[in-house]
UniProtKB/TrEMBL annotation, chain A:
Protein name: General L-amino acid transport system ATP-binding protein
Domain of life: Bacteria
Family affiliation: Belongs to the ABC transporter superfamily.
Record carries keyword Cell membrane: no
One function term, GO molecular function aspect: ATP binding
From TrEMBL, chain B:
Signal peptide positions on this chain: none
CDD domains: TM_PBP2
Keywords: Amino-acid transport, Cell membrane, Membrane, Transmembrane, Transmembrane helix, Transport
A GO BP entry: amino acid transport
Major site of localization recorded for this protein: membrane
Stretches assigned to the ABC transmembrane type-1 domain: 94-386
Name recorded for this polypeptide: Amino acid ABC transporter membrane protein 1, PAAT family
Length: 264, 398
């Protein structure tokens, strides 16, 4: 089977590092946009160190689901518990969860009025009360990890899309999150820049980070995911190991979806 | 003719049509035409005016500025007597224009921010109130606003039935009467304390920022600053035995005596300018905040920054780029539109200088030029200051 991917399809899978500890728990989560029932009774439990790839057709609720985890979207029914803290209307809880959960967006959302380095140090300085020098030192370490330390003094507008997305990943990591959410991180990138971002994400997976990744990069799913979740019309239709998921999909909807994205 | 021959450029012999159709030639040609037209028109106007003035025996020059104006001015914030010179009248007009513009700009800016943010509120009632305000106020000409408030203020009670507050503030159909502060011995020390408070507060802010950058610890610099600026003078004030008394306005005969009076025309003009121009400020603020994409707020939230910090560190710095240019024109418009004061008899620069002084002295060209000079100076100063600020907050793209 030829998978549309930017990563070599060599059958290598990053070693799993899953612990028993449950870090994200979604129980009967429901959400509506007006009349539209966007999340229908979602139940999901994520262990520490687990790497989950979420796919599905557009409008299936996959982005909305991970955006509920750090309350960029508000769920209307059900429980979301992150690192033992319940996500609700309590501002202190929301702040605590957001400090521990990093997020990478499709459109990068870097702060254009700040340099790359300032983008990375803003939150540590203001949220963690970190001295500027220390924040900068940590930021430089992460910028090195995403392989663009030489761009630290530039502004986001001066970088390519792939570079911007790598800065966005470094910016999130500077808050030392225990969980990382990726919302279609490569969908806004030119093809030749996708692999540089995926490489960084594979590196992150190797370090044992808990990751929830909404993506259509099936090569990435094969290489990194411990579990692939397929969503359609607001429901989790199927979840399985990548091997099973790709070679032996159970539901017709999954089969149809896979045939569509793997056709070309 | 072969294809090779055609490809050889012939630089030495350009045909007329080649020259006429050359874009560089056209650009230079049109610029020359415009320049000639401008110079000719200016020359015509100047010589024509000079000839006409000479034919009517009218003198030109600025000597009249040192002669006595001889008329009285209803209200001024700097001292003026009927025996003062025309130049003094000029200064009185400038002061009266500036004082009303100053208060109007401050109130407009603050109210504009409030209304602009209100219009974006997710609270339906708040947003609708702000929208209604904007739609009503901006669709009525400013002159109408001014006349409306001036006419309305004439319906205020007579001095004997004044609307009073705390027996010290009185509003009636002649104007607003407020207590006038009379500084006693040692009050200058209180003023000095205010200045020291401001200086120390500034120092504390700088120090707090430095310390936060160095150690990460935050210091309540804002409230400390407020405490210093307010507290120091208050302490001095009471330590010196409260060296400030007030001259209260009191009804004597047909009107109030004592205190300070603000004429009805000033109040109506200020009210109208603020109500009208707040709309444009509010729209500028709204546009500025909307120009910052929601993704910025989401990214900031996802990093754990609280909404108040997000607004201060992420949204406002970016919104200001879009707010400042319209804010510049709004401030300049406030100053320029204050000249509509002439409609209700508020003695601003246009009223006392371009109207009364001009009619009396006949030096139309000089007076109009001086008034124009004033408005241009103010506008260019505002524009220069805000443009400088705008340059500081511009975003680097490449």
């Amino acid at each position: 089977m030829s998978l549309d991917t930017q990563l070599p399809d060599d059958g290598v899978h990053v070693a799993s590092a899953i612990s028993d500890e449950v870090v994200i728990e979604l129980a009967s989560v429901n959400k509506w946009f007006g009349e539209f029932h966007v999340l229908k009774d979602i139940n999901l439990s994520v262990n520490k160190g687990e790497r989950i790839v979420i796919c599905g057709p557009s409008g299936s609720g996959k982005s909305t689901m991970i955006r509920c985890i750090n309350r960029l979207e508000e769920h209307q029914a059900g429980d979301i518990i992150v690192n033992g803290t319940e996500m609700g209307t309590n501002i202190k809880n929301i702040d605590a969860i957001r400090r521990n959960v990093g997020m990478v967006f499709q459109q990068f959302n870097l702060f254009p009025h700040l340099t790359v380095l300032e983008n990375c140090t803003l939150a540590p300085i203001w949220v963690k009360n970190m001295p500027k020098a220390e924040a900068e030192k940590i930021a430089m370490q992460y910028l090195e990890r995403v392989k663009i330390p030489e761009q630290a003094a530039k502004y986001p507008g001066q970088l390519s899309g792939g570079q911007q997305q790598r800065v966005a990943i470094a910016r999130s990591l500077c808050m030392s999150p225990t969980i990382m959410l990726f919302d279609e991180p490569t969908s806004a990138l030119d093809p030749e820049m996708i692999s540089e971002v995926l490489d960084v994400m594979v590196g992150l997976a190797e370090s044992g980070m808990t990751m929830l990744v909404v993506t259509h990069e099936m090569g990435f799913a094969k290489r990194v995911a411990d579990r692939v979740i397929f969503m359609d019309q607001g429901e989790i239709v199927e979840q399985n190991t990548p091997d099973e998921f790709f070679t032996n999909p159970k539901s017709d909807r999954t089969k149809l979806f896979l045939s569509q994205i793997l056709a070309h | 003719m072969s294809a090779v021959d055609k490809a050889v450029p012939r630089r030495d012999a350009r045909s007329i049509s080649e020259i006429v159709n050359d874009e560089r030639f056209r650009s230079i040609f049109y610029q020359i035409i415009v320049a000639v037209a401008v110079i000719w028109t200016a020359q015509y106007l100047i010589t024509n005016t000079a000839e006409n003035l000479q034919a009517r025996g009218m003198s030109t020059g600025f000597e009249f500025l040192s002669s006595t104006a001889g008329f009285s001015i209803a209200w001024s914030i700097i001292d003026y007597e009927a025996g003062d010179t025309y130049f003094h009248v000029y200064l009185v007009g400038i002061a009266n224009t500036l004082i009303v513009s100053f208060f109007a700009i401050i109130a407009t800016t603050l109210l504009g921010f409030v209304v602009g943010v209100m219009r974006l509120s997710s609270n339906f009632v708040v947003a609708q109130i702000a929208s209604a305000y904007v739609e009503v106020m901006r669709n009525v000409p400013l002159l109408l606003h001014i006349l409306f408030w001036f006419t309305l203020s004439s319906a205020l009670p007579s001095p004997k039935q004044s609307l009073g507050w705390l027996d010290s503030f009185f509003l009636n159909n002649r104007g607003l009467y407020v207590p006038a502060p009379v500084p006693g011995d040692g009050f200058d020390i209180v003023i000095i304390m205010v200045l020291i408070g401001i200086a120390v507060a500034y120092g504390v802010t700088v120090w707090a920022t430095k310390r936060q950058m160095a150690t990460g610890q935050r210091f309540p610099a804002f409230w400390t600053g407020v405490g210093l600026v307010v507290g120091l003078p208050l302490l001095a004030f009471f330590a010196l035995g409260a060296p400030l008394t007030f001259d209260y306005p009191a009804l004597k005969g047909f009107n109030f005596q004592g205190g300070a009076d603000v004429p009805r025309a000033f109040c109506a003009l200020l009210f109208a300018l603020v109500l009208y121009h707040t709309v444009f400020m509010a729209e500028a603020v709204r546009a500025g905040i909307l120009s910052v994409s929601h993704g910025q707020t989401e990214a900031s939230y996802s990093l754990g920054l609280k909404p108040s910090w997000t607004l201060r560190l992420v949204v406002i710095p970016q919104a200001m780029r879009a707010v400042v240019p319209p804010m510049i024109s709004n401030w300049m418009n406030v100053v320029k539109n204050s000249s509509l004061a002439i409609a209700i008899g508020y003695p601003d620069l246009v009223a006392v200088f371009m109207q009364t002084s001009l009619n009396q002295s006949g030096h139309a060209i000089e007076i109009v030029a001086m008034v124009m000079l004033f408005y241009m100076t103010v506008s260019l100063t505002i524009s220069a200051a805000l443009n400088y600020y705008n340059k500081l907050v511009q975003i680097k793209e490449r």
